Amino acid sequence: MNAMNIDPALMEIIVCPQCHGDLAVVGEELVCQGTCGYAYPVRDDIPVLLVDEARRP
Question: pTM of the prediction?
Answer without folding.
Answer: 0.89
